[in-house]
Structures are given as C-alpha cells and as structure tokens.
Amino acid sequence: MRTKEVTLTIPEYLYEESLKLTSAGLFRDLSELVSAGLRRELQAAKELLGPEETNWQEELSRLRAQIRQKRAKYGITAKSEEETLDELRAARRELWEREYRQRYTADTGQ
Known about the structure:
110 residues, 2 domains
C-alpha cells in the first residue's frame, strides 16, 4: 500500500490520549491510530452519503429540467426578473397594509 506523509495538527489532549493508547499497545504508533480513525470516519461519511455520492450540481440540473417540463406541460411561461420583483413588491405592500401599518403609523396620525 502506498503512503503519503502529512503534517497533522491536533489538540494537545488528543495527542496525550493517543500516546496512552499507543503505550498500552492498542496501536503500533500514532500513524496507525490516525489511519484507523480516518478509515472509521470515511466509512461513516460514505454511509451518510448513501450508496452513491450525489453530485448536487447534477441534481440541480435535473430539478430545473423537471420544472421546465412541468411549465411546458401546463403552458406556464417563466416570469422575467422584473415581473417577479413586481409581484414581491406588491405582496410586501399588501402585508404592510394588512399587518404593520396600523402598528407603526397610529401615533403619527398617518
């Protein structure tokens, strides 16, 4: 097995605990302990990712394609940026009028 030499910086308490484990004979040396820990962490990470590592960019592209297909199926055209902003501004004004205007303008007589 090929190896790669790396420099590792760890908290002092981890180093002290590692020395205890190697002194007790549980690991040949610090390198073996670190390798065992890395193998364990890599395995746990792979289990979290599932059977295949998912590329989020590919998933995003698939989702966008699905959205385009649904829009085409139902005859929905994408809104321009300005149309979207206009709708958001109108919703914000409506919310202000309904929920906040009375609270913040009652004392000023507006």
